[in-house]
Amino acid sequence: MAAAAICVEDEAACAAAECAGIGNLDLAAAGAGAGGKRSVYLMDCAPVWGCASTRGRSTEMEDACAAAPRFADVPVRLLASRRDLDRLGLDADTLRLPAHLFGVFDGHGGAEVASYCRERLQVLLRQELRLLSKDLGETSEADMKEHWDELFTRCFQRLDDEVSGQASRLVGGVQETRPVAAENVGSTAVVAVVCSSHVVVANCGDSRVVLCRGKEPLELSIDHKPDRKDERARIEALGGKVIQWNGYRVSGILAMSRSIGMYIASGTKSWQNDLFPFLSGM
Amino acid sequence: MVGLVGGSTARAEHVVANAGGETEYVRRLHRHAPAEHQCTSTLVKHIKAPVHLVWELVRSFDQPQRYKPFVRNCVVRGDQLEVGSLRDVNVKTGLPATTSTERLEQLDDDLHILGVKFVGGDHRLQNYSSIITVHPESIDGRPGTLVIESFVVDVPDGNTKDETCYFVEAVIKCNLKSLAEVSEQLAVESPTSPIDQ
After folding, report:
1. Residue A194 falls within a domain, yes or no?
2. Which molecular function terms from Gene Ontology are attached (chain B) (predicted)?
3. What is the CATH number that goes with domain B34-189?
4. B158 chain-A contacts, CB cut-off 8 A
5. Model confidence over A172-221: pLDDT tens digits?
6. Mutation for testing the A interface, residue in B95, B163, B173, B174 having most A CBs under 10 Å
7. Which helix (H) or strand (E) holds B183?
8. What distance in Å separates the CA atoms of residue B11 and residue A236, rounded to the nearest whole number?
C-alpha cells in the first residue's frame, strides 16, 4: 500500500510514498507564483494529498496510512540556525512553521497495531513538538538533527510501549495497560513531517518514503532489513540470528529487523528509528 | 522456560533432567531416525497448569490457532477426525509461508501423544514430522505439565542443519510459550482444578 502527499511550492512538488503494485503516485503540482520573493520559511505550504492502498497478496487489509495536514507547528529553530535566521531578518525565537504529517503503517499478523499507530503517532508527535519549543537554546545544525532524533525516538518508543502494554494509554477516558494486540502482531511505521523548508522522515521497519521531484525518484528512508550489515550485527549482538528462509529473516521468521510490536519473533523489544532530514529549497 | 534436549546437531544448551524424568520420556516416546540430510531436536516446556487443560489445547488438531500464534485458521478435510486426517492450515501474514497441509499421525488420549506430519504447503519443511507429549508434574506444589516436542525435518537446499534447527526451534518456542500463556490463563479462570491426572 502507499500514500502520497504533494506540497505546492514555487519550485517543486515533494513527498511521496512508494505504492506496491501501483508504482509511484505522481500528482501534478501547480506552482503558485507569488509576486515578490519570500523566504522559504515564510512561504505557505498547502498540502495536496491523496492516498491509495491495496491488500496486495494478503487476504485481509492490515495496512494503515495517516494524513494530517497542519497537524502541528514546528519551531523554526529545529530547521535553521539562529545565525541564518538573523541574517534573513526572521525572529528565531517565535517563528513556527505549519507542518503536515504523512505516515504509512504496514501491519503483519493483524491490523490492530497499524491502526493504533495511525491514530496515535500524530498525537505523540504533536505533544513532543509542543514541549520541544521550550528547551531550544543555542542550536547548531548538528543539534537540530539530534533534537529530531530524540523527538522521534521518544515518540516511537512510547508508541511501542503502549502497544506492548508497558505504558498505559487512554481508552474511552480510562487508563488501559493491556497490550493493543497479541505478541505476534506488529507494524512498520514510516512518517514524513513536511513543512515549507524541509521534509523530515523517520522510519521503523521496511516501509518506504520516496520523493518524486520532477521525474527522478529519491529514497528518503532506508529499510530495516535483517541482511543489512549493521542490522545483522545488532541482531546477533543481542543473541539473535538472521536466516535466509524465503528471504532474510530474523530467526527465519520476521522479514524486517525492526517493528512496532511483534516481539514474539524478534525475541527482543530493541528498536531504533532512523532519521533522515532532507533539505529542500534551501 | 524452554530447554533443548539431545538432537543430532551439537547444541551448547542442555537441560539437566529433573525428577520428572524428561530423558526417560524422550527415550521412550520421541524416537526419530534422522537421515543424513535431516536434522532433529527436542524442546521441553514446564507449564503451571494441570495436564488436562494443556492436553485439551495440544490435541485440538482441528483448532491449532487456539494456542499457535502464527496460525490464522485451519480446515480439516472430511467429517471424521481420526488418525490419517488432513488439515489445511493458513498462516498469518509477514511469515515465510502461507499454507501448510498436515496429517494426523498419532493421537493417544491415554498417553497424551500427538503426532503430526507435514505433507504439503509452501513452508520449505519437507518431510517434517513432530511428536508432542504432555506429562503431569508438580510445580511449586501445584499440578503442572511437562510438555515435550520433538521433530525431524529435511534440511532445505541453501540452508545448514544449524539454520534449519534454529528456525524450527524458534517457531516451536513461540508455540510453547503461547501454549503456556493460554493454558495458565485457563487454569486461573477454571474453578477448582482436578488433581486426578
Report:
1. yes
2. abscisic acid binding; protein phosphatase inhibitor activity; signaling receptor activity
3. 3.30.530.20
4. 244
5. 888 988 889 888 899 999 999 999 999 999 999 999 999 988 889 999 99
6. B95
7. helix B161-189
8. 17
Cross-chain residue pair A252–B163, CB shorter than 8 Å: yes
The dihedral of CA A258, A262, A265, A269: what is its sign? positive
Question: Residue A18 falls within a domain, yes or no?
Answer: no
- Each residue's pLDDT tens digit, B13-35: 334 344 457 888 998 899 888 99
- In a mutational test of the B interface, the residue from A57, A243, A263 whose CB has the highest number of chain B CBs within 10 Å is A243
Query: Residues, chain A, total?
Result: 282
What's the sign of the alpha-carbon dihedral A244, A249, A255, A257? negative
Query: Domain boundaries in chain B?
Result: 34-189
CB contacts < 8 A, A to B, total 66
For A208-231, letters b (16+ CB in 10 Å) and e give bbbbbeeeeeeebbebbbbebeeb
CA count, 13 A, side-chain hemisphere, B39? 18
Please name every residue paired with A211 in a beta bridge, in sequence order, or none if there are none.
A218
**Do the chains contact at B94 and A255, CB–CB below 8 Å?**
yes
Taking the C-alpha atoms of residue A176 and residue A28, their distance in angstroms, rounded to an integer, is: 44
